[in-house]
Amino acid sequence: MSLHKTVTPENLIRQELLALHAYHVPTSDGMVKLDAMENPYPLPAALREQIAQAVAGAEINRYPDAAARQLKADIRKVVALPSGMEVLLGNGSDEIIQLLALAVAKPDAVLLSVEPSFVMYKMIATFVGMRYVGVPLTRDFSLDLPAMLDTITRERPALVFLAYPNNPTGNLFDAAAIKQIIAATPGLVVVDEAYYAFAKDSFIPQLGQYDNLLVMRTFSKLGMAGLRLGFLAGPTAWLEQLEKLRLPYNVGVLPQVVAASLLTHHDVLLAQAEKIKLERSRLLAALGGIAGVCAYSSEANFILFRVAQATQVFEGLKQRGVLIKNLNGGHPALTDCLRVTVGTPEENGRFIAALQDTINQLA
Ligand code: PMP
Predict the structure, then answer these.
(1) Which residue's CA is the nearest one to ligand 1's atom 7?
(2) Phi/psi of residue 350, each to 5°?
């Protein structure tokens, strides 16, 4: 008699994970790539050379500095952190979202965010077995403060994520409303400033004013998406607990040296962000000039817009060699919505021409 049991993913993997769809990253070879909020500008040649030298000297036979002292010092130089605040590094800010959720995932603990917002908040809640609660934004994508405060009282969330500016809507929420939410929340509130380089405001100066406020940033949108580097800033008492969950070598030798090099030229990256902001206004104006397009203003490096037949428009753009993000079907508030990343003037021009052409053809 055989004692062998059939081991399959279906009978071993947690039910809630079997029900998930993996985060989909489409192929973009040869296309105008305006789907992922990347910085479209390459680095100046002199800076590339400096990075090549830093990489040539890197000791990749050794484990990285687990405390990433140099890189953290460089981050402190470019981000004016209030005194008493610590920094924790992640392999992208996605990893930090996961680490925060893991830290507070007691049975029945709630992760709260708004909808529509960054989809990883909900996905990661599922990964770690937290209960996810999403509070709808208002019709113009602002915070619904009474609904937020009610839900916070009812659900007592352990962790709240607010993307500031929000993805995929591009707007900054009202800062006074966020402060009320922080004050009312019995758990941690993480203000996710992935798009800080393109926005008018930040919660970094508020750190230390509330004992449950943390601010998270990524360098992905600033020109380092390929490095995978994000950080969390906040009071030492929180960060020293979270450090226990961080895998010791989560940021490799190469990202550490390259990011440290790049941060000594933070001004170059910020100047690129300024160019992107200028292009953002031109792109918004161009979208506004196309009949049948309703575009939302943005404090980020992308623009959300609505058209009559979003999926057909998305496919039409793809056939014309332009890849953007189709949000239609993802959330009821995003019906017929598309999101385009601000590219170079040339890329944006190709996108606008392809969009006009597609809409004319569909009419
Ligand atoms: N937060 C928000 C709001 C985002 O839009 C993104 C990327 N789309 C991230 C976090 C994750 O960025 P990364 O993992 O590249 O740091």
Answers:
(1) 194
(2) -65, -40
Q: Which residues make Cβ contacts (< 8 Å) with residue 203, sequence separation at least 6?
A: 164, 175, 178, 191, 193, 213, 215
Task: Evaluate: CB of 94 within 6 angstroms of ligand 1.
Answer: yes
For ligand 1, is residue 92 a contact (CB within 6 Å)? yes
Model pLDDT for residues 202-214, shown as the tens digit of each residue: 999 999 999 999 9
Regarding whether 278 and 259 lie in a shared domain, the answer is no
Ligand 1 center–CA 94 separation, angstroms:
6
Is 301 touching ligand 1 by the criterion CB < 6 Å? no
**118 Cα–ligand 1 center, Å:** 8
Q: Can you give the CATH number for the domain in which 89 is found? A: 3.40.640.10
Q: What's the 73 CA to ligand 1 centre distance in angstroms?
A: 23
- As given in the structure block, the two tokens for residue 304 are 């959300």
Q: What is the pTM of this model?
A: 0.96
Position 50 in a domain: no
Burial of 275 (0-12, 13-18, 19+ CB in 10 A): middle
Q: 93 C-alpha to center of ligand 1: Å?
A: 6
Q: Which residue in 205, 105, 208, 123 sits closest to 164, CA to CA?
A: 205
How confident is the model over 318-345, as a mean pLDDT?
97
93 lines ligand 1 (CB under 6 A): yes
Ligand 1: residue of 39, 96, 100, 218 to mutate (most ligand atoms within 8 A of CB) is 218
Domain that holds residue 336: 9-43+267-362
At 104-154, the pLDDT tens digits run 999 999 999 999 999 999 999 999 999 999 999 999 999 999 999 999 999
78 found inside a domain = yes
